[in-house]
Amino acid sequence: MAQADSYGPELKVLMHNKDHPVTEWLSLEKSSCLYKLSPLLDETNVVRMEGRTERAEYLPFDLRFPIILPAENAVTKLLAHHYHSKFGHGYRETVKNELKQKYLILKVDALVRRVSSSCMWCKVQRNKPQCPRMAPLPVQRLAPYLRPFSHVGVDYLGSFEVTVNRHVEKRWIALFTCLVMRAVHVEVTYGLTTQSCLMAIRRFMGRRGPPTEFFSDNGTNLRGASKEVVKTIHDVAKDCAGELTNAQTRWSFNPPATPHMGGVWERLVRSVKEALTVLNEGKRLTDEILQTSIVEAEDIINSRPLTYVSQQSGETYALTPNHFLRGVSPNEPCSVPPSPRPAEALRDSYKRTQQIADEMWTRWIKEYIPSVNQRTKWFEESRPLKAGDLVYVTDGNARKSWVRGIVEEPIVSSDGRIRQAWVRTKTGLIKRGTTTLAVLEISDSNTGPDIDRTRVTGRGMFGTTPLDHP
């Protein structure tokens, strides 16, 4: 049937010259796709290729004289899909090799690729989250002329074991990151409780001042601390005179399982860990040693260059976070050679100080901003999530632990793209980023008209839901 549909004229010529098997294919037009395959008809009038292995009688007949099939025919596609399913939806080369044992399919590479990409089982079992184009930086990352730690990211790292008297206790480190100038502030915490986190935040605010906004992951200790901080600052603002104090702080949380949204502080967590590798020297650690080490690590990280300064540049030093915190980096002399100042700045020391700060911010805008302007990944657009989409919530590396769900409400970001969504699972309504949501692009025509979407929210990859069979 497949050969009659695609090779009708050639089949008539071969049938007409069947009595002359030696020259029957020579009567074909040279423009025919079968001309170079030396076709012949067997006893059942099936077109086969007469190859160079015809004398190897110990080989199977189908291998020596494979059946010629067109790649675009529905019968050929069904054969390819049969072998694709028979061999466990595995490698394409395996499917092609098995097809070549009996058939000669023109453009077999493209056929197997199309069958594999259109296989519904493969779509369900091997789908991955699709990320939209990388979002622009938030305005909190690009706000110059503010005091340090006006916008802060909070995270935890650890634990570290310290010796107290004759027993061992655990300590953690709370990391506070300035989102604008990338400075860090570290505090030792004695537990992962809300009270311990609150005390670390109060010590930070006592040294650096209250920030305008906190950003953090969805840790339970940080979520509990945020409520207390907002309530405390609200009470302070209520009790103090409004014209003298404006103590209001916001706290924003990233969606669960989206560490890339907090990369500005996650990267500095790694830097702190690298700076604290000296603690793994094999000796016992005490609270005093830990406190001293993290302060030295903080100074090292705050002395790192934010920008690259060429040797041919007129600048003598690279811009560091310590220039904003102290006015000078610890690796430089305490006095910076004066540059020409306006006459007003020379007469007024306060205005001269402000001019020096403005020059640092000018360098920050000219040198640092261009270094973070270019996207490093996620350049292409992706299909946006829609309400009613069937998804896998890809929490964890094991696919069997992924949870099925239905998108209830996509969350539109400021640039109009969907990067978060509320998803309904069998355990309830959860909020996740699109990087953890793998869409199952299954239409009703593929899954049957009577699909029950409420059954799709089961757990695991191998259950009794309609999605387990394409």
Please explain how this structure is put together.
The protein is α+β, with helices and mostly antiparallel strands and 470 residues long. 34% of the residues lie in helices and 18% in strands. It contains 15 helices and 14 strands. Strands 7-6-5-8-9 form a five-stranded mixed sheet, sandwiched between helices. A five-stranded antiparallel sheet has the order 13-12-11-10-14, with no helix packed on it. It has a two-stranded antiparallel sheet with strand order 1-2. Strand 11 and strand 12 form a beta hairpin. The radius of gyration is 34 Å and the shape is elongated. The protein starts with a helix and ends in a 23-residue tail after the last helix. The model is unreliable at 241-246, 334-340 and 444-470 (pLDDT under 50).
Quick tags:
single chain; 470 residues; alpha+beta; 5-stranded mixed sheet; 5-stranded antiparallel sheet; 15 helices; 14 strands; 34% helix; 18% strand; elongated
Secondary-structure-based class equals alpha+beta
**Overall 3D shape:** elongated
Number of helices: 15
Strand order, biggest sheet? 7-6-5-8-9
The major β-sheet equals: 5 strands, mixed
Beta-strand residue percentage: 15-25%
Radius of gyration from the alpha-carbon trace, in angstroms: 34 Å
Mean of residue pLDDT values: 77
Stretches where pLDDT is under 50 for at least 5 consecutive residues are 241-246, 334-340, 444-470
Order of helices and strands: HHEEHEHHEHHEEEHEHEHHHHHEEEEEH
